Amino acid sequence: MPVVDQVDDVWLDKLTQVQSIDIGEAQLFAAGAENGLIVMTRDKRALRALKNISGFPESLAGRIVVMEAILIALCDEFGSDDVRQCVRDLIALDKMVQICFSSSVSDPVEGLMSYYASLKVELNPLVLWDPRPGQS
Q: Is 74 in contact with 83 (CB distance < 8 Å)?
């Protein structure tokens, strides 16, 4: 990952007064928007606020990566059983992981896709990174 220089205050100034976005997320979003970088985040509260801030949906289109998308891509690449083994310690910490990867669920991707689709709608006009480009 590249080291990013200090971002332009124009991007940061749009974010610093938004209570739902902490300074760390503000710096990530600003650096992503200014430098064309991918932004990985689990902070749904910050994303809900970001979608309404001028310039960010366009500048970050397709480059916001949420955990659901990462897990879908990992399941596609390595198989759901291997990913289930890797995330077993997260089950107690994350409700979405708990629901999708519980032992009673045969296909975690189905639940992950449901969460991801819901986020895509909720966060519009932000465009999330698509773990399955060209598929709907």
A: yes
